[in-house]
TrEMBL record:
PANTHER family documented for this protein: ARAC-FAMILY TRANSCRIPTIONAL REGULATOR, THIJ_PFPI FAMILY PROTEIN (AFU_ORTHOLOGUE AFUA_5G14240)
Gene3D superfamilies per UniProt: 3.40.50.880
SUPFAM superfamilies, alphabetized: Class I glutamine amidotransferase-like (SSF52317)
DJ-1/PfpI domain span: 285-421
Protein name (database record): Class I glutamine amidotransferase-like protein
A Pfam family per the record: DJ-1_PfpI
Keywords in alphabetical order: Glutamine amidotransferase, Transferase
Any one GO MF annotation of this record: transferase activity
CDD domains registered for this protein in UniProt: GATase1_PfpI_2
Length: 487
């Protein structure tokens, strides 16, 4: 082996090791409130303290899944208000920020026996350099101190030098920070003797229906919590220009049939409407050869809920993207400038065949899908998601005529007998069923009445049963007829 071959082999080995180390770092971020268990033998629920508010916090878990140590790791968390919040941000004398206060920083092996030990903090100022120990999770809990209540796009960034070349390497994870994340919360059972703040004269009221699951998520209820009518949550935080924001969410009733909670929101302190930050950023990823119905069918319904969804079209470049019908669609964001997405929708179309060979497209889909709260696919869009590995071990469905191709792109468990499917936060569905899925998703986020209103005003016959799929039998009959003709 000559010197040139030796150098090329060394460069290849370094490149492989760098990619391996980067892929071995897994970042997860969750928002939670500090809970306490009330004392006394009669306590049957886990409730937050009613005399001391909990603190809004972020829990950042970084896991080194490899068997190699990663040295000299530094961390940073950045918060950037999306464009929709810039006008609100201008009310403050300086750009809105979120300061962090460290609560805990620990390290724990991911395999038993496990014991937590104190570890250097990665995300404080000045930042500390630390080593990510093999097969170990580094967890930091930090308190959020926002300068103004607004929606933020946040990014966790880890940087470390390559062990072979010293080149700077990095890993990023994006997520969203909303109003509910930035408020301290008191949770009160229906039997709480504390005087109800909504008795105050002049309190403003907004009534909305939320799914019980969504309410648990935004209010950060403990899993042991029993959600019941009469329960109320007090939320307190510092708004812009030194204002104090105070809200109360009262659960008026529970619809057990549809798992919906009718809630009354009372404004018991000053707050501007622009500070609510409730709208979810929904990104529609398109590529050459996407199917128009897959994109614009669900988009028609989401567009009726502008108070709940901010819709953006994302593609690899800013150039208009042609569909299967050759009609081009305008692009809002590229892979390079796309913010964190709460909802990701992947359409199908003949372009998915080339898409599964596009490593940049698959890498972008994988990153956004892992960071998003909800991922929706239509038709052969589930084939793109399967090719990223995100669907491995999950159930999925798709266009029946492309069934074998879709399930051949990953290790997902096919379910051809349903029109749309729900697995945790992942939904995969075939062709025009994307419109039924869109209404089902609106039902989950906005409530049953909102979904019914959207379908009615669109004059659309909403099929609510996921097992309603006459096309499976039709296609099977056609395939059987074709096979018989060959004999």
């Amino acid at each position: 082996m000559n010197l040139k071959q030796s150098l090329e082999m060394t460069q290849t080995m370094n490149s492989v090791m760098e990619q391996f180390l980067q892929s071995s770092i897994k970042i997860m971020v969750s928002e939670r409130d500090l809970l306490r268990v009330p004392s006394g033998p009669t306590d049957t629920k886990i409730l937050q303290s009613t005399d001391t508010p909990s603190q809004p916090t972020l829990v950042i878990a970084i896991t080194n899944t490899s068997q190699f140590p990663i040295h000299n790791v530094s961390g940073q968390i950045s918060f950037q208000p999306p464009s929709a919040d810039l006008d609100q941000a201008s009310l403050s004398p300086s750009p809105p920020t979120i300061a962090l206060t460290l609560l805990t920083s620990t390290r724990r092996a991911i395999r038993p026996p496990t014991t937590s030990v104190t570890a250097p903090a990665l995300f404080m100022t000045p930042p500390a350099l630390t080593t990510l120990v093999p097969l170990t999770r580094h967890t930091e809990t930090v308190r959020l101190v926002p300068s103004v209540l607004a929606q933020f796009n946040a990014t966790v960034t880890l940087r470390f030098p390559s062990p072979g070349t010293g080149k700077a390497l990095g890993v990023e994870h994006g997520f969203g920070v909303y109003l509910a994340d930035q408020l301290s919360k008191h949770v009160h059972p229906s039997s709480d003797p504390v005087s109800a703040p909504w008795d105050t004269e002049g309190s403003a009221t907004l009534t909305r229906s939320y799914s019980v699951g969504f309410l648990r998520e935004i209010m950060c209820f403990n899993p042991a919590f029993g959600v019941e009518a009469g329960m109320w949550v007090g939320l307190v935080g510092a708004g812009g220009n030194g204002k104090t924001v105070s809200l109360t969410c009262l659960i008026r009733s529970i619809d057990l049939t549809h798992s919906l909670a009718e809630c009354a929101i009372y404004e018991t302190g000053p707050m501007d409407a622009a500070e609510t930050g409730e709208s979810k950023l929904a990104g529609r990823l398109i590529f050459p050869g996407f199917d128009c119905l897959d994109l614009y069918g669900p988009l028609r319904f989401f567009g009726t809920r502008t108070e709940d969804f901010t819709i953006k079209i994302v593609a690899e470049t800013h150039n208009p993207v042609p569909s299967t019908a050759r009609a081009a669609t305008h692009v809002d964001h590229t892979f390079d400038d796309c913010p964190h997405l709460d909802v990701v929708l992947l359409p199908g179309g003949i372009g998915t065949r080339a898409g599964v060979k596009n490593e940049r497209l698959l890498g972008f889909i994988r990153a956004k899908a892992e960071a998003a709260t909800y991922v929706l696919t239509v038709c052969t869009g589930s084939g793109l998601l399967a090719a990223t590995g995100v669907l491995d071990g999950r159930k999925a469905t798709s266009n029946k005529m492309a069934w074998d191709w879709v399930i051949g792109n990953g290790e997902c468990m096919g379910d051809a007998g349903v029109k749309w499917d729900r697995v945790e936060h992942m939904r995969e569905l075939p062709f025009s069923a994307g419109m039924d899925m869109g209404l089902h998703f609106i039902e989950r986020i906005c409530g049953k009445e909102a979904a019914l209103w959207t379908a009615r005003t669109s004059e659309y016959d909403w099929h609510q049963d996921p097992n309603w799929d006459p096309f499976t039998d039709m296609i099977e009959a056609e395939n059987e007829k074709l096979e018989n003709s060959k004999q």
